[in-house]
Each structure stands twice: as C-alpha cells, then as structure tokens.
Amino acid sequence: MRGPDLQGLLHAQNLQLENDRNVAQDTSGEDESLVWEDPTGPLRVHRIHRGGSCIYRLELGDEVAVNVISRNRIAVLPRPDTPQITINHFIADQVVPRVLSQHDGLVLHSGAIRDEQSAFLLLGPSGSGKSTLAASFHHAGWRLMGDDAVVLSSGPGQPMARAVYPSLRLFPDSIEALLPRDVAAQAMAHYSSKQRVDLPVPEHFRELQVPLKAIFVLAQACEDRIAIRRLSAAKACMAIVENSFALDPGDAHRARLRMEGASQVVRKVPTFAIDYPRDYARLPEVRAAIISKVGDCRPSET
What we know:
Layout: H1 6-12, E1 16-19, H2 21-25, E2 30-37, E3 43-50, E4 53-60, E5 64-70, E6 73-77, H3 84-101, E7 106-114, E8 119-123, H4 130-139, E9 143-146, E10 149-153, E11 160-163, E12 169-170, H5 172-178, E13 185-187, E14 195-197, E15 210-221, E16 227-230, H6 233-242, H7 252-268, E17 271-276, H8 283-296
Parallel strand pairs: 1-6, 8-15, 15-17
Antiparallel strand pairs: 2-3, 3-4, 4-5, 5-6, 7-8, 7-9, 7-10, 10-11, 11-15, 12-14, 13-14, 16-17
Helix pairs in contact: 6-7
C-alpha cells in the first residue's frame, strides 16, 4: 500500500471522499465550537452546526482540515501548499479510525500481529515503540496486520480484531535495523522523518477478522529487564479506553459505550503490561517473552 492507497482504504471502509470547497469559501452559516484538542499534538476537533445538521471538523494544525459529514461521507477542506502525502496520512491515520469508532465499536491505537489461528495486540500511544516491535515480529516471519489502528468487535464469542489497513510507519533507523535493505518506503508526511513501508494488502482485508488472544500494553522503557505482568480488569479497561480513537472524546454516551466494550473484551482476553529495553539487540528476547505469554493464554484464563 503506497501513500497509503487512500481510495482503496476508503472503499474498503465504505467511505466517500469529496472536496468541501463551498465550506472553505463561506462559513457564515456555521455555529462552530472546539470540543477537543490533543494535548500532545496539533489535532483539534470541532463540532459544527450547519443549518439543521451537525458535523465534525478535524484539523491537523494549519495543514489540513476534514469535515465528517455523515457515517459514509467525509470532505477535505483545501489548504494551500499542503502535500498530498500529508493529507493522505491525516485521513488514513486519524480521520478514518475516528469515523469508524462512531459505528464499529472499539478502535484502538494498536499494532496487531497474527498467526494462523489468532492475533495479539501491541497497545500504546505514539512514541511507545509499538511500530518498532510490530516490525520486528514482521521481520521474524509473523503476519503483521497493522501498526496503528485496530477495530475490536465483541459478542457472545471471542472478541475479533481487524486492522483498519495494513500499516507500518517507522523512523529510518528502525528500517535500517529491522527490515531488508531493498524494502520500499516513502515519506509518511512532509513534517515527519517517519517513513511508510509498503505492505501487501490481503484481498478483502476489511473482512479479515481474527480471534483476539491477548493484549500487551507497552509500558516503561527499562535499561536491562523484560517484565510482563497481568493487569487487573480495571487497569486493563482503562488502558484500552485511553488508547482508543474517538471522533468526539467529550461525548459522554460514546465514552460509556467504549468503557462497556472494553469491559466485555477484558472478561475474555487477558491484558498484560510489558516493560522492556528499547534496544534493537534485545528485541528477539522481547518477542520470545511475548510469544511465551501468548502460548500460556487459555480460555479458562479470561
């Protein structure tokens, strides 16, 4: 997937993209309020009342803005001089997961690794090392579903996981340390040194749902030890909610649904915190520790 393949991603998620040029030129009929601002980055979310309808506007600083018009429609507001790769990155990695969170249950900021039978998640915010760890599993022969956004669905059976799209974004030093020299990569966005690595796109990847066996929350970066500990149900729920996408984080009803969904997941899926050195040479040990813990997970452990 290059750039990423935005049209393929939107088609798979049943979303239609358009240009909202009229809004960009005339906002006099709008009642707009800021509902959330990311304390760690430039993302802002506005709620806009336009006539008798309510939409959301997501802004990446002054670079790009996207209106979420309905469940199936989003619109880009043109901004001069913003490269297309940055627009694509913002839509794929911020807008789409937040739109899906309104309708598809829990959408986690997570990497997902799978084998033939099941998947496990690497949960954590940007900068926690989940993409590097996910890439190391990929390089070791595991199947990488994605490194950023994963949809969880729960019901009477085992919770299921699917990646929003097959993603892998890494800094150049991680690419050099973990991936083959001839790997295809390109800029993720014009303001970041991260690279987006090409990954094969499975046919019908939207339907690729895998039973979830375990969740690992990436915790402290330790100098010399690798430690995995089971989280209590309460702490596991909080970790899942804190690392979930939301279109309107201030919406109390949706927040309650996220907490209920997290509670359903942790009743059936063990959640662990893992401390480990952020050292490329130690990654085989980290993988071995995770694989051993996944192998120990049994349905009776939930």
